Amino acid sequence: NETMRTATKRRSQSNLCRMLCAAIAACVVVAADGTLAEESGKINEKALAQFEARENEAFAIGVQAYLYGKPVVEMYKSRYEMALNPKSPKYTPLNRFQHYRELLGPEFTAVVTPNNDTLYSIAWLDLNREPIVLHVPDTDGRYYTMQMLDFYTNNFAYVGKRATGTAEGNFAIVGPGFRGELPGGIHKLQAPTAYVWIVGRTLAAGKEDLPAVHAIQDQYTLTPLSQWGKEAETAVAELAPKLPPYDESSPLMFFRMMNLGIRQNPPPNNEAVWMHLFDQVNLGLSQEFAVDELDLATASGLRRAIAVGRQIVTAKTGDLGTKVNGWDMLPPNTGNYGHDY
């Protein structure tokens, strides 16, 4: 089936080239001596060569963009379902915790391979306006962790027993544009991107231990810095951006979501070369990706790139690490991937 689909796509691209050349030829008035007809043939060949070159260029850049943008798109989808779509069963407003009160089984799909000995506390943060202060209680030695991911799925900070201990603490998660001062007694955690995903886990020693874990969860709080020390919290849900959902039926929706994601969460300056490359097919930071403004060759190349990029990612997932005594040992950079795409 995959071979048939690939062949169909190639026939479609070939037909598109022929249609383009036919349209050009139709615009040429052929003179009696055949001079213009000869020139028309040259124009057709040149136009076809230019179309194929542009289509191949868009394809080559598109494959790299797909591999680069895959984590961005997955985070976009996760943020939309968990924090921007009120109709989703997973929905909780931005900058608020959603606490899971039961131990999880295979039916839980909000995160991959969930633990079944911890209760989850999950939140999406918007740091565009100001930092968000995370408060954690004294857990009296109980294991817990607050894992923090930027929009590229890099783990930039942890709060918890192994990283900061189990005493009560306050931690300000600070976005890239913040230049203010923090109150005393608040530890600064610098986030690389404006949107951050917190995945919290608190150890539960079976069902009988759940009430004690619930009491700890209820003391995890997220407060905008401007409201720190005050009784009322800002109604941050009203500030949620209006963003489109991920529409699987749209052929180039992947690249639209990627473009929105990186423009809201610019990568570090040392990745400017990637952004310059992606700009050549309207995918970088310089402009919004608009499908209806793409030329036919670029659109065709990007559609082909999505199919091939997906194949590459799927093939890679079959071998994620080194097998040792039946265990898959993940690479050392798992969780902080840097420039490894």
List the SSEs and their pairings.
Blueprint: H1 2-26, H2 35-84, E1 98-99, E2 118-126, E3 132-136, E4 144-149, E5 155-160, E6 169-174, E7 187-190, E8 195-203, H3 210-217, E9 221-224, H4 253-264, H5 272-279, H6 296-317, E10 322-324, E11 327-329
Q: What are the salient characteristics of this protein?
A:
single chain; 341 residues; alpha+beta; Immunoglobulin-like; 2 domains; five-stranded antiparallel sheet; four-stranded mixed sheet; 11 strands; 17% strand; disordered N terminus
Question: How does this model look, in words?
Answer:
The chain is of the alpha+beta class and 341 residues long. The chain has two domains: 2-81 and 253-329, no CATH class; 98-239, Sandwich (Immunoglobulin-like). The chain has six helices and eleven strands. Strands 1-2-8-4-5 form a five-stranded antiparallel β-sheet. The chain is elongated and about 90 Å long. The two termini are 29 Å apart. The relative contact order is 0.16. The model is unreliable at 2-11, 21-32 and 234-238 (pLDDT under 50).
